[in-house]
Amino acid sequence: MSGAILSTHGLIARYGDFQALYGIDFEIDAGEAVALIGANGAGKSTFLRALMGLLPVAAGMVRMEGTPIGGTATDRMVQMGVAIVPEGRRLFAGMSVEDNLRVAMDQAERLGRKGGWSLQRLHDLFPILKEKARTPVQSLSGGQQQMVSIGRALLCQPKLLLCDEISLGLAPKVIREIYAALPEVRAQGTSIILVEQDVGLAKQASDRLYCLLEGRVTLTGPSAEVTRDAISQAYFGGSHAVV
Ligand SMILES: Nc1ncnc2c1ncn2[C@@H]1O[C@H](COP(=O)(O)OP(=O)(O)OP(=O)(O)O)[C@@H](O)[C@H]1O
Q1: CA 133 from centre of chain
Q2: What spacing in Å lies between the alpha carbon of 43 and ligand 1's midpoint?
Q3: I need a surface site. Which of 4, 9, 19, 101 has the fewest CB within 10 A?
Q4: CA of 144 to the centre of ligand 1 (A)
Q5: Helix runs in 21-134, H state only
């Protein structure tokens, strides 16, 4: 019996006739950070969408603490403790930072989710969110918007946080600031699945990684142990270098 907080078993996902995932076996334990790497179009976002109930998936293909939950509606996934920081952030434009965060707090309350994250706690993690509390989110920098997006997910009090390319398009200094917050999230006992294009960052921030290529897992192992060569092979299915 696996002690995984979440696992997938031969997970298949399709967009109409197009098959994007071909039987993904995956697991993540409580408090673990697992990175998902792979080239554009490998299926990383699709994998997160399938977990989040945004694509039709057979129940037994996804298990949460052993219970089949594949295809469960997104709201119910949030209720069970899974939250996503989506690619492109998808904040509520026209609303302030604090109002964006309050939407998540209201959602958590409505769904009966309790946990250690509060506005105060979030302000300790990302002080700029306090300074900019009244600012409309569209006036923030990309990095600040990403902090709001992460904050919104954390205020859903997740046991498992799904992060879809949270470094995309951000300056190195801002990326460091955002990634520096992840150990604090894990210290709460929250597991993290990290979809990340930057292989170095993915390795640093995770305990284990999976590499996807054209909808299949081509490599998995402890992040500190997988070599650049192995990643290169898995990433491209050939002998390209990863820089
Ligand atoms: N809504 C959609 N309809 C049809 N095909 C899609 C859709 N979204 C993604 N795909 C296809 O599914 C495959 C996997 O895409 P996905 O977005 O999961 O890849 P990814 O690894 O997250 O890459 P990226 O870094 O570009 O987001 C690709 O071939 C993509 O073209």
Answers
A1: 24
A2: 6
A3: 19
A4: 26
A5: 44-51, 74-79, 97-110, 119-125, 128-131
- Residue-level pLDDT, tens digit, the chain, 243 residues: 457 999 999 999 999 999 999 999 999 999 999 999 999 999 999 999 999 999 999 999 999 999 999 999 988 999 999 999 988 778 878 889 999 999 999 999 999 998 889 999 999 999 999 999 999 999 999 999 999 999 999 999 999 999 999 988 888 988 998 999 999 999 888 999 999 989 999 999 999 999 999 999 999 999 999 998 899 889 888 655 554
Name the residue ranges covered by the structural domains of the chain: 6-236
Q: Is 45 in the pocket of ligand 1 (CB under 6 A)?
A: yes
Q: Is 21 in the pocket of ligand 1 (CB under 6 A)?
A: no
ipTM score of the complex?
Answer: 0.95
Overall CATH class of domain 6-236: alpha beta
Calculate how far, in angstroms, residue 41's C-alpha sits from the geometric centre of ligand 1.
5
As a whole number of angstroms, the distance between CA 129 and CA 143 comes to 11
Locate 178 and state its tokens: 């955002």
Question: pTM here?
Answer: 0.93
Length of the chain: 243
Rounded CA separation 78/113 (Å)? 8
Q: Is the CB of 237 inside a 6 Å radius of any atom of ligand 1?
A: no
Backbone angles phi, psi at 186, to 5 degrees: -65, -30
Task: For residue 38, give the ligand 1 atom closest to its CA.
Answer: 21
Question: What is the 3-class SS of 16-30, one letter each residue?
Answer: CCEEEEEEEEEEECC
